[in-house]
Specification:
By secondary structure, the chain is of the alpha/beta class. It has 3 domains: about 55 residues, no CATH class; about 180 residues, 3-Layer(aba) Sandwich (Rossmann fold); about 80 residues, Orthogonal Bundle (Helicase, Ruva Protein, domain 3), CATH 1.10.8. The chain contains 15 helices and 6 strands.
Length: about 325
Amino acid sequence: MASSTQIKALLQSHIEKDDERFLSIALQVAAHEARSGHGRIAQELRDIVERAKKKSFNQLPVSIAKSIKDSSGLLSTTHPSLKLSNLIAPEELKLKLERLIREQRHMAKLKNHGLSPRRKVLLVGPPGTGKTYTASVLAGELDYPLFQVRLDGVITKYLGESSAKLRQVFDAIREVRGVYFFDEFDALGSNRSAGNDVGEARRLLNSFLQMIEQDESNSLIICATNHIEILDHALFRRFDDVIKYELPTENETITLYKNKLSDYVAKNFPWKKLPDRSQGLSSAEITLAAEDAIKEFLIHEHKKITLAILDSAINDRRNMSNHLEQ
């Protein structure tokens, strides 16, 4: 017979709609019955679990999410297929993401021991360094849908309306497992004592703090900001991890160019000259410069992409970046 602990765990996982954990506990009950000499009931339980797995194979949270229609306009949904190997980033950063993915994949095992996997993460760093790309990678690795929270739809000027819309987002986070991405998070999380703050902004931040504190769903909440310095300090203890992004290193810069240009350049192309020429550019800007060079190559039917062609594309991107910063 199932122990009281297992019965409570079964009920809790049912309430939380955590099918994976529910079936895992059911198999533990079957194993207990088998050890107690109740082979028939143990086999019946295992058969029931197997049938449940087969029946729900095409009804996983990811599949259900594909049919969601967000009439409120608060979420936009995609289904990325990217993997961690696609991300060009320092090894230390990738190890943190690997740990997050690993804990998600072993969620049932961790919960059975009273532990929670990492699932609330803050990404900080300059624009174009891979924060949005990381959200897509996590969704791709876990085969979850990616829900981008449209803050322009959440934040309104009407008293109390923003908090009500934020509640709708957290209801979705609870109901449908996925990666929920809050980009430009400082719009929600700026310091409550800031001089330009208004009452509604303070109320919205307080609502977010309360909702993320109370959230016990199985979804990943990923927040990204370019301005960590203006975030309210109360936010940081709500996150399981804070991951910092920087401009690409020399090796990362070369890898980014090679990934795009290897098929279009001569074998003796001077890759090692590119980090100096690309200093100050983000990963996104380097990728765009490489794509601009490919466009030039295709349109003008050059034999190969030369360093001069790439230099021109790099300078265009740098000038654009400088113009935006002014």
